[in-house]
Prior knowledge:
single chain, alpha+beta, GMP Synthetase, Chain A, domain 3, 26% helix
Amino acid sequence: MDNQENNSFVHDELPEVVEIIGISFRGATKIYYFAANGCIAKEGDNAIVETARGLEYGKVTLTNAKVKREELVLPLKNVIRIADKNDDMRYEANRDKEKDAFDVCVKKILDHKLDMKLIDVEYTFDNSKLLFYFTSDDRVDFRELVKDLAGYFRTRIELRQIGIRDEAKIMGGLGICGRPFCCNTFLPDFVQVRSKWQRSRIFL
Length: 204
């Protein structure tokens, strides 16, 4: 596989020590690692990176660091560049477009009479994909909705059904302790929740 085409590296193609940069997306607490690719990041920078979804805009949460190859989760993709003013402007323009897309999708959900609640909308940085996140108590057949949205926005559409904890992570709010939700502030991943009254594992 040509690395210049997929912009990622497998284990044998990396040196013993790799310089990486840590990136988080959309205010999330989880950090993803990318090969620095000659880029020098400073605290407060944003960066353009290659992901499985396409080009993405993220915040630098870990500046340049060197780690051993065996400590990395592969494949490892590159930082494309440190974001400039044009990138920042494009990101903000995408956020404005997401607000409009949210309103359009809500209307189309009503038109298709689907039992689902739209939570968030996200454009990839390069506008190659438009993602809609929703909750529902049941499985939803949204195939016709996807066709409708694809015809309207003229881009790839992806609908993702999420759980209530994912909703809390996106929307934020206060817990019963009176503090902001852990999942919205510092908790990077959800763990399985075990109930002593049930043998099976459950996910909130």
